[in-house]
Amino acid sequence: MQKEQLKTMKITHLAVCVALIATSQLHAGASVADSSKNKPSTPDEAFAYLKAGNERFASGVGIRRDLLAEARETSGGQKPFAAIVSCLDSRTSSELIFDQGLGDVFNARLAGNVVDDDVLGSLEFATKAAGAKLIAVVGHSSCGAVIGAIDDVKLGHLTGLLERIKPAVESASTKNKESCTSKNPEFVSEVVERNVKLQMKQLTEKSPILRELAANGSIKIVGGVHDLATGKVRFLADGN
C-alpha cells in the first residue's frame, strides 16, 4: 500500500514539474495582456501598434489573454483603436492575425474585402463616432473572391459582389492575355494587391466623412496583404 502511495506521489510530483516547466517556457515566449495599458491615441501610433501585433502573430509569440476577463471589462463599452476591412475567409480573423483582444479593433468582413455602402457606413461610425484612428484594408494570398472575379464566376448574389473586384482584374490585365488567368499565381497576387488599393480608394471617394478625417489627419488609411502561409501582413503603405 505504501509503495503505491509513494508511486502516486512521484507521478504527481512529476506532473507538477512538467507543468511548471511548460509555464515558464510560455512566459518566456509571450507577454501577458495588460488591460491597464493605454491604447494608441494617434493614427501613426495605431498603425505601429497593429504592425507590432502582426509581427507577434507571425513569430508565434502572441500575448496571452484572459478572454473572459476581457469580455467582462468591455461589456460596458468599447474603444477600438482601428477598423479593419478584411475578407470573409476563415483564415483571416483580424483579432488573430494582428494579435488583438476583445474590444481592440472593429471588423468589417466581406468576401474579397470589398467596400460597399454598408461597409462605408460602418467605418464612418467606427471613426467619426467611436474614435478609431486607423482603417486597414487587408487582402490575402490566393483569395477565392479574387479568383472568382478573374474567372467571371456567376452565382446568385455573389455575382454582384465580384463585380466590385472586376476593375482590379481589368487594370492588371494589360500584359499578355494568356498569363492573365487564375492559374497564374503571380497574376492572382497582382490582382489581390490592386484590389486592396481599389477598395482603399473607395473609402475617400465615396465617403465625405472619411475623406475629411483622412485629410485633417484624424485617421490614417492603409492597405496590406496577408500571406496565409507565413501569417505576415505586408503593408502597401510602407512596403514592409
Question: Strand percentage, roughly?
Answer: 5-15%
Number of domains: 2
Low-confidence stretches: 11-29
What is the overall silhouette?
globular
Strand order, largest beta sheet: 2-1-3-4-5
Q: Give me the number of helical elements.
A: 10
CATH superfamily of the largest domain: Carbonic anhydrase
What summary fits the major beta sheet? 5 strands, mixed
For the record, what CATH class of the largest domain applies? Answer: Alpha Beta
Order of helices and strands: HHHEHEHEHHHHHEE
Structure summarized in a few sentences:
This protein has 240 residues and is of the alpha/beta class. The chain has two domains: 1-30; 39-235, Beta-carbonic Anhydrase, Chain A (3-Layer(aba) Sandwich), CATH 3.40.1050.10.
Write the layout of secondary structure elements.
Elements: H1 2-29, H2 43-59, H3 67-74, E1 82-86, H4 94-97, E2 105-109, H5 117-129, E3 134-140, H6 144-150, H7 158-163, H8 166-172, H9 185-206, H10 208-215, E4 220-226, E5 233-235
Parallel strand pairs: 1-2, 1-3, 3-4
Antiparallel strand pairs: 4-5
Helix pairs in contact: 8-9, 9-10
Overview of the structural elements:
The longest helix is centred in the first third of the chain and has 28 residues, at 2-29. This protein has a five-stranded mixed β-sheet with strand order 2-1-3-4-5, sandwiched between helices. Mean pLDDT is 88; it is low at 11-29. The chain is globular and about 55 Å long. It is α/β, with parallel strands linked by helices. The N and C termini lie far apart (65 Å). The protein is built from ten helices and five strands. It has helices at residues 2-29, 43-59, 67-74, 94-97, 117-129, 144-150, 158-163, 166-172, 185-206, 208-215; strands at 82-86, 105-109, 134-140, 220-226, 233-235. It folds into two domains: 1-30; 39-235, Carbonic anhydrase (Beta-carbonic Anhydrase, Chain A, 3-Layer(aba) Sandwich).
